[in-house]
Amino acid sequence: MEKYTPPAHFNRLYYSLAILMLLGALDVSIIATALPNVVSDFGVTQNISWILVGYSLATATALPVYGKLIDKYGSGKLFGWAVGIFLASSLLCGLAPNIEVLTLARVLQGFGGAGLSMLPMTIISSMLPERQRPKYMARFGAVWAIATIAGPILGGFLTEALGWRWVFFINIPIGFVAILLVAKVLPKNEELKPGKLFDISTLILFIIASSSLIFALNGFTASIGNNSTPAYAFIAAAVLALVLFFWRTLKAPNPIIPIRSFASRGAITALVISALSGANLFAVASYVPSLLQMSYGVPGWLAGLALGPMILAMLGVSLITTRRVGKTGRYTKLPVIGSVVAGIGMLLAYLFGSQLGPWFLVACLVIGGIGLGTYVQLNLTLTQAYTKEKFLGAITSTFSVVRDMSGAIVSTISGGIFGFGAVALLNQLALPEGLTGSNISPEAIAQLEPALRAQVQTAYFEAFHPIFLNSAIAYIIIFALALTLPKIHLKSS
Predict the structure, then answer these.
(1) What is the pTM of this model?
(2) What CA–CA distances, in Å, run from 323 to 141, 231, 316?
(3) What are the tens digits of pLDDT across the range 325-346?
């Protein structure tokens, strides 16, 4: 097979887009280490979570809109607007005089961040044949890996050295440099989709459903052990809106999310594999650092870095397997092998993690990362290929929405299992006066008598235990689905 030659100026475009994608990815995690300083500066703790939730909500609702706008007006035009909104809102975040303005600015930043996360994938997909896409998507995966590891560290450094506002100001000079590099090499003559933009009623129903779902998830997380009635009300609203959304989507000629484009068995299977894989990754990665602190006494800074080996393993294997797919076009065995390897990693953590300690647990996560890396970067390309759609904006945005929403849902359910389970087990122990299952901290655990400390640490691991088992079961389902993936020829030109 002849060596593939990318289009002219492709590398300049690709790496400039990667820089802008990095900014959007960093803003998901970089703010976490700055939150205590934000609380101290503004003197409020109420509604502080909306700094994070507002960004997630805006991103979730903006993704399908970007997909339709790309197909109608072209990715080049939209990219300028997305970057402009992101940088302007970053400036507003840095200048915010109170928590209300900061929350509003984060919502605006989420609208821009949605474009920075999705537009690069759509632009690159439209310029490359299907066989070459996974290789370049794997490198975009490296951007998210770097952001996941470096975000909290960079956020802590900027907050300590210059103040929390520089967590947002740092976006502006980097963003302007990337814009100057990318401006002249963005695609100019894109084929655009004629006709009506989208059915507005499906957008309204999607916003109501996704917003209610995010409010409900946030409510359940915040109300562990307290009144969850408002969260149940939001769940009811989300279910009703989802039913109406699917009913209207199947009837409307041009819905905001093109469900009918996913009618083929291959497209649905690839989408479900992606959703389950992303949900597994979110669920485990979100709470393992807390488990390491509470169950093994690992320092907070080291617990946060414990995910690094898993992410690096996933990235390294992705780069190898996607390069092989680019050369051979063969992919069918990769999800089968990867799901088996990842499932073994989670099963080992479930069976032996409590006895063999934190390093064994990190090793199990590395095995899981190797398994995921085998196939995770193929999912978008396979979904695009199975749908056979010429216009990729709506397909790519739907893929992103399903992956992110499933991750948020499963991550919150896992947090509930972990949180409720730990509180229930700890309240059965004879804790010192003033300590309960709800308010115990790593520092407090370290000061307990050795026998009681061992009981508390065991309780935390037992509470987390079902998450490893559920993850292993999910990989069995992925394995079964991977066996049914139809073979399809990935175009090489």
Answers:
(1) 0.73
(2) 14, 45, 11
(3) 777 777 788 888 888 998 899 8
